[in-house]
Every structure is written in C-alpha cells, then in structure tokens.
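Its record is retained below.
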Amino acid sequence: MTLLLQIAAFALGSYLSIRMIVALHGIADLWFMIDKAWPRVLAGVLAWGAAIGVIAWLMERPYQAAFVWGLLTYLVFYLSLLPLVGLYFASRRTDRDID
C-alpha cells in the first residue's frame, strides 16, 4: 500500500507542477493587458504555490519525498523540452529560406 501511495504522491506532484507552470505562463500570455489582469495572474500563481506548499507540508515524510520528486521530475522534463522547441523552429525557418 505504501508504494501505491508514493506513486500517487509522485503523480500529484507532477500534476501540480504542470498547474504551476501554466499559472506562470499566464504572466506571458496576458502581458498585453497585465494592468487589468494582474490580480487574476497573481491569484493563480499564489493559489497553486500555496496548494503545493500546504500539500507538501501535510504529507508524511516518504510521501513528501515522492511528491517533491514528482514536482522536480516534471520541471526538469519541461525545461529539457525548451531547447528542442528552439531547434524545431530554427529548422522550420531554414526550410522556408531554401525555397
């Protein structure tokens, strides 16, 4: 049962990592109207950050470690994709220049 709960904590950490990245993307997505949208953007970042903190604080130690590993694993995965996106768009620009 402990292993199953650790897997669930890892999955929850991955999910909350995704939600936090989405909330942080709200800053860039709504930058054109940030003067009106900043309360919504700030509330999203604070809400997901608080949810992550409270859940991590309430978990017992083995589940907390799995939860944090889930958070960090998805963050590293996400950051590793950023150079690949740059390469993809660079290759598409080169393809258009050939024609």
User: Anything to note?
Assistant: Residues 61-98 form the longest helix (38 residues). Helices lie at 2-29, 34-58, 61-98. The mean pLDDT is 89.
